[in-house]
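A quick aside before the break. I want you to see a complete sequence-to-structure record at least once, exactly as it would be stored in a machine-readable document. Don't worry about memorizing anything.
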Amino acid sequence: LDKRETNTTGARVEVLVGETGKFRFNVHAKNGAIVLSSEHYTTESAAFNGAFAVQAEGQSAANYSLKENASGGFYFTLSAQNGQIIGVSQQYTTRASATSAISSLQSFLPTVVVL
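That is the input. The structure line, written in tokens, reads:
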């Protein structure tokens, strides 16, 4: 793999532009699965600021909130110190798998590549 290919595989935070022209980011685990997604931003720089906030705020367990949805699944949110939600996870079938995803995210965020 050359450098461009390695940046699109494995653990990473990827800023994307959607069909509506708005920006968002996804946090990918080492296996490439999307672990956390952001809201939509009107500018690319705001999306990058959010992505860098995930890297900074995501290392602290206190910034995560584990929640149960109406159908009995679990998900988590990551919030900044001011309480604003930075990202929302995918849905998990068990509390244990959602908790495991938080631990995994905390372990790779210090070295993750922001694209």
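Two observations worth writing down. The first strand starts at residue 12 and ends at 17. Helices lie at 3-6, 44-57, 95-108. We'll return to this after the break.
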